[in-house]
Amino acid sequence: MPDDVAKLLIKGGVPGQVGQEIPLTQDVTTLGRAPTCQVVLGSDFASRRHAQIIRRDQVYWLKDLGSKNGTLLNNQPVMGELVLSDGAEIRIGEATFRFIDLIVTQTYPGLAAAEQLRVETSTREVWVQGQKLTPRLSLKQFNLLNYLYLRAGEAVSKDEIITAVWSEAEAEAIYDYQVDKMVSRVRERIGKEWIETVWGYGYRLRLE
Fold first, then answer.
1. Is the pLDDT assigned to residue 82 strictly greater than 90?
2. Which stretch of DSSP H or E encloses residue 102?
3. For the whole model, what pTM was predicted?
């Protein structure tokens, strides 16, 4: 597979597949409920052929195929074709994806150095300001950061974090102060500015 192939990162709404990456290896990738689509969605809110991602000269475009419920790009309805930029969020029904354009960091190294925060689910690597974090985060620290990263910009409750980070058996004995301590450790590694405290509720990852 070419190193510069863009990908879709599944953020939510696709049971059992959150965090998985879908390489966009074809010039046209169709998303929808039909089994013939390259990305098959089980949502009742998705049309059989809902949307397409079209590659032209290494630029990727998002097109809604006249779906009943529409397609959102960064929370805005898609009309006609829109260019996809690195980090863009696509929503189809309950399913949400983050568009990752690898050629951006390869072609424009200055942009790569300025990239704020990158979490690679498949390799458990974390990049901060263009630098790979070494040594790696512990597994639970990574799972916490990755969960916040997949829901960047959203306020995530401590209960949700406990469910995502600790096993079902462990979660019963985990208290809020242990979540706070884990967040503190992650902040020490990546910098305090990325994870925002939502008082009385939980935390939010800020990428802006």
1. no
2. helix 102-107
3. 0.52
